[in-house]
Amino acid sequence: MAVELSVVRDALGVSVAAGVPVLLWGSPGTGKTSVVRALGESFGWPVEVVVGSIREPTDFAGLPVVVDGGVRLAAPAWARRLADSGHGLLFLDELTTAPPAVQAAMLRIVLERVVGDLALPPGVRVVAAANPPEQAADGWDLAPPLANRLVHLDWPVDAAAVAEGLAVGFPAPAANGHATPDPARLVAARAAVAAFLKVRPALVLQVPTVAALSGRGWPSPRSWETVTVLMGMCDTIGAGEDVRAALVTGAVGEGAGIEFLSWLANADLPDPEIVLADPDSFELPERSDRAFAVLTAIASVAIARGDTESWTAAWRVLAKATEAAPDVATLVAQSLAAARPHGAALPSEILALTPVLRAAGLLDGNRGTGR
């Protein structure tokens, strides 16, 4: 799926802002390193470039040293500099020219953010670059476990952008490196992904069986969780649909990603915050997958807010779903009842939910719904 260079740059910025490790795939000498350096400069962050092809596993797993009669795994200088700074970009270059043993050592950095015995601070973000194996000297495909921990973005060659970058400098991706996903946007994204996977359970996990696909994004519970974070960040900063599409397909692969994006477009889900602001105007969607997504998102946003007004509005919405979607209503009622704000009175709409609450074990003859 061909994507414009400006879209890939912005998708890179979203990934870095969200703290999601990202891998840029492209031919040698196409400006990947320059853009990463420009991104670091725009954030005021240091950039450490580590070339995998000239490193040993101990450069990532740590070098064993004896200290006070015990053995510690000493981190290299680049990791200590990032840790001392508290934030920065770790750029793992030439990833596919790193031997499998080095890739395995890199895996812990991408997953756990640990180098030897040194934990990198949350402000350190990971960006990698790789040449396709057929273009890399002595190249290897990425191991599936490492590939599944990265968002994969294809880096296109744009002659005009290269000329402009050489003349005036390569532009940095447009994103705020200090932003975090809005909690309401994040829970809405989680509800949408959950609803889709209920419809397409086969896409929860699809381990690649073809070697050519094993080194790219593929669907797993981990990569779908990544999709929720990226979507939450996109909605928070107002990223375009093309940027969101690049990130989703980069995380779970083109097949699963395009199917999810198509489902999302056709679902036409309302904004949970708008629904909570005017619960009386809400109409429950007829499709069960849409009803699940909407109701769980509304409940999640209300719980995240933690105030009585949102909690009460969520019950008013839920009351409209008891007959049409009793299973979803039961699930949402459990979550709402467990998150009752201190001092919140029971809304009158809860009377319509008495059978649902009793079926969920939230009512008995003596205690009602009180805590």
CATH topology of the largest domain: Rossmann fold
The geometry reads as: elongated
Computed over alpha carbons, the radius of gyration is 24 Å
Share of β-strand residues: 5-15%
Mean pLDDT rating: 84
Helix percentage: 40-55%
CATH architecture of the largest domain: 3-Layer(aba) Sandwich
Taking the alpha carbons of the first and last residues, their distance comes to 53 Å
Largest sheet: 5 strands, parallel
Number of helices: 17
Describe what this molecule looks like in 3D:
This protein has 371 residues and is α/β, with parallel strands linked by helices. The protein has helices at 5-18, 32-43, 58-61, 77-85, 100-112, 144-147, 159-168, 183-199, 211-214, 221-237, 241-252, 254-267, 272-277, 288-305, 308-319, 326-338, 354-359; strands at 22-25, 47-51, 63-67, 70-74, 87-93, 114-115, 118-119, 123-130, 151-154. The protein folds into two domains: 5-263, 3-Layer(aba) Sandwich (Rossmann fold); 272-359. It contains 17 helices and nine strands. Strand 6 (114-115) and strand 7 (118-119) form a beta hairpin. Helix 1 crosses helix 11 (241-252), helix 10 (221-237) runs antiparallel to helix 11 and helix 11 crosses helix 12 (254-267). The longest helix has 18 residues, at 288-305. The protein is elongated and about 70 Å long.
